[in-house]
Amino acid sequence: MSIESYDPRDRLVREKYFSLHPKPLERWLWQQGLPQAAERVFWLHWEEGMKSGTWCSEVPVKRVATLCCVDPSTVTRAYQLLKTRGLIRRQDPGRDPANPFHQATAVTEVRIPRELLTELGRYPNRRAQEPARAANGDGEGSAPLVSSPASRGPQIMSGRPPGASQRAGEPTTASRPTRNEIQALWGRASAAERGRYFIASRNGATAIEFDSDSRLTPEDRGQLLTQLDQMAHARNCPPPEPISVQGATAPPKYARPRHLSVLELARTRKQVLATVSASEAPEVLRQVVWAVEEGALRRFEMPMAVNVALKKLREGAWTRPNRMPPNWMIAAARPEICSAA
Q1: What band does 5 get if pLDDT is binned at 50, 70 and 90?
Q2: Domain membership of residue 300 as a residue range
Q3: Quick check: 94 pLDDT over 50?
Q4: At 81, which CATH number?
Q5: Is the backbone peptide bond immediately before 257 cis, with ω within 30 degrees of 0?
Q6: Are the beta carbons of 78 and 69 closer than 8 angstroms?
């Protein structure tokens, strides 16, 4: 490679890793006037949470300080500032099970503030990806989807255009046509072609025979066959089980043991104290935790189960759970045995 044709900027873009920050969130952070160190810490946990798929990450403070090129004390102050702005939530897991004399790494969850959520609707969305064109950019010179109808008489086409890669069992995808384009497409189709399309869609077929002198363009035929392929795929594959956002429709199966975290337990204790008297709070909290962890509320997601119990307390409909052991204790209050002693 000659020196004149080498550009390190192109190499950085093509070969090296880079990060993309959502514009609404990035501009909101600029408006808050956060220190540069706090932004570095936030984007570090944002990228780690996005990689894990849960928006949670476990990175030691010293590791965060090294990656962000700041001091550990600066990272601690950044955590405090980000928590006050509602950008992160940190959960202290307590002592490290492998080493009881050391603190375990805290779990950091990145969050979006409520002020930004109410304004997301006014930000523009990205354009949908258009289907790939030919290498020359204008589509000219590329192989057509089908040969000329005049040279081949009646044709039977499959449901996927040539050259389109697709996994087994997946429907074909194409750009969504507008309402006017659909009306123009059916206006060019003959009555016989419309009838064959209706029969194919009713029987779940993915092929259709076009007239020898059809006025449909190759793009029109590809669009009709894509629709047939999608309808056939939806007919042959059973629909997935509906899952509600709160998990009430099809609750997931939880593996034992299921315990409230220290942060969730403290929040639940505070809400119980705000509902009942201080003398009744310990016993009521014990009943609520048992119902959420092992009782009837176990079939719900953890946050939803706690909210259901608190709602019953506020409405005065809470009763002691059935089959609750009389000597049952909360996990955080159980005596611990130090194996290193």
Answers
A1: low
A2: 262-331
A3: yes
A4: 1.10.10.10
A5: yes
A6: no
